[in-house]
Amino acid sequence: MAGYKAVVIGGSAGSIPVVTELLRALPLNFKFSVFIVLHRLKNVPSSMDVILAGKGKGIYIKEPDDKEVIQGHRVYLAPQNYHLLIEADHTISLDYSEPVHYSRPSIDVTFESVAQVYAAGVVAVLLSGANQDGADGLRSVIDQGGTAIVQDPATAEYPAMPQAALNRNKSAVAMTPEKIASFLQTLND
Amino acid sequence: MAIGKSMTAHSLITMEELEDIIHLVRRQYGYDFSDYARASLQRRVVRCMQKANCLTAYELKYQLTNDNRFFTWFIESLTVNVTEMFRDPAFYKELRNSVLPKLASYPTIKIWHAGCSTGEEVFSMAILLHEAGLLNRTRLYATDLNPANLERARQGIVPLQNMKEYTSNYIQSGGTSDFSSYYTARYENAIIHKEYRKNVVFAMHNLATDQVFNEFQLICCRNVLIYFNRNLQNRAMTLFSDSLAPLGYLALGMKESLMFSEARHQFETINPAVRIYRSKI
């Protein structure tokens, strides 16, 4: 399946093992850009980017700086205590405004922004979590013609977040982590 | 916010309408947002529209054109007024350990907090200076474009519910005093003691339009430049460069980089992890 420019993954409580699995499933020479938004503590030292990189078999993962130019074959992890937005010129824009759903970074904020820039070229994946973040963002992805995937709540350690997204978005597709992984493998050109 | 629930945020306003609003605000009120990064500015404008129950860009423009008080509210809501005491403790630790000892050699120290919001990082700096024995010979200039922020900052009031987190930040930054000795708790608020605010001058200053106003040994501008495009970032960096004393320090936010700025060659990196730079000239 060609034409996908961005895969954006949002997760909260219970999502790290699935994120790891999905990173491992990325096609070897994937050409799209990957954005990951995880609910994380702030003002504490974190090595999440290093941890994920260690699990992702040599994949290039980083917390981007503001204004960084987005490239293909890269994984961008939203930094602690910032919202991650995308500008129309395909640069990263960080934002320190109020938390959304008590979260900064917020999944909604990044999903909406990615949808606006990449439109139908987006695959958005919402994983396990205990709040409502991501449901509105998936709506934006669907409205812009993108593909919305939600982790099957029955497989999620915390089903509230994927369930809220499914309730809100009838055209979002529920998949087990294995199905999501094999779907990602079909995305390369 | 009834509409916020039933509509996705960006369906409220197109990029073209955003340009119209920027133009109107500049022409009528003199606030220039034309070089602000669009993704976050659009979010902020939509948020204002939702709060004000404006369903269309036309309604927003109508109110901005005809109601000065609405504009005052708009500008206060549009700007990001979020801050924390001792945000990024590792940064404050580095200030304590390697920057303040260098500043100690000056007979008088001048520090500029550009984009100080409601002052929490300024109070944090004053506490550090006090603990280093430097506060009495330091003057802190704290500027923001939002007058409501400055008014709040002058009162030295911080929501009490945040103090637990700020205490943890303070300790992580290497603070060893009793943090509660720096403020008085009163109902829902903590009031920072006057002695940590008396050397602070709060004033309006707009990085998009205003000029150099003094010379400083340290400029802190943390998480302000992220709202600017590269053009305006370059303007601000030139302003900082022109405002720094020889070998003066510049501190940016943890994810703000000099790499994308034209002024990068004028600075050396002191600590890349916490984004502290020093002017070479």
UniProtKB/TrEMBL annotation, chain A:
A Pfam family this chain is assigned to: CheB_methylest
Domain CheB-type methylesterase: 1-189
Active-site annotation: 12, 39, 133
Reactions this protein catalyses: [protein]-L-glutamate 5-O-methyl ester + H2O = L-glutamyl-[protein] + methanol + H(+)
Classification via InterPro entries: CheB_C, Sig_transdc_resp-reg_Me-estase
EC class name: hydrolase
One example GO MF annotation: phosphorelay response regulator activity
EC number from the UniProt entry: 3.1.1.61
Superkingdom to which the source organism belongs: Bacteria
Assigned keywords, A-Z: Chemotaxis, Hydrolase
Any single Gene Ontology cellular-component annotation: cytoplasm
Any single biological process term in GO: chemotaxis
PANTHER family, per database record: PROTEIN-GLUTAMATE METHYLESTERASE/PROTEIN-GLUTAMINE GLUTAMINASE (PTHR42872), PROTEIN-GLUTAMATE METHYLESTERASE_PROTEIN-GLUTAMINE GLUTAMINASE (PTHR42872:SF6)
Protein name: protein-glutamate methylesterase
Natural source organism: Larkinella terrae
Upper lineage: Bacteria, Pseudomonadati, Bacteroidota, Cytophagia, Cytophagales
